[in-house]
Write a structure and sequence with these properties.
alpha+beta; 4 helices
Amino acid sequence: MRKASFSPDAAQVQQFGLPADANLDNITIHAGFDILGVSFQCADAFRGKSEPTNQIDMILDINADDPASAQAAEDFYQRVSASGTVTVGWETIFLKRNCDVVK
């Protein structure tokens, strides 16, 4: 998996309206990673008070008709579910179990 992450520097604190005492190492100005060949780009939102959230959804569109793609997705799903670092919601399970309906 390819990944990269960049935090803002001290000169960008004012530009982004960040608090002067912000811990810049905990802020992501730009990050990117690949999952199953799909490139994801992300960044923290610099609007208002910075608060952790669990309100992020990501959707991976895989070719469920291709056995190799379907197996790679299943392996990834199992690894993420078992990691304990990501909450896998009911939407994921529904889509996974009903992929013929979602096509």
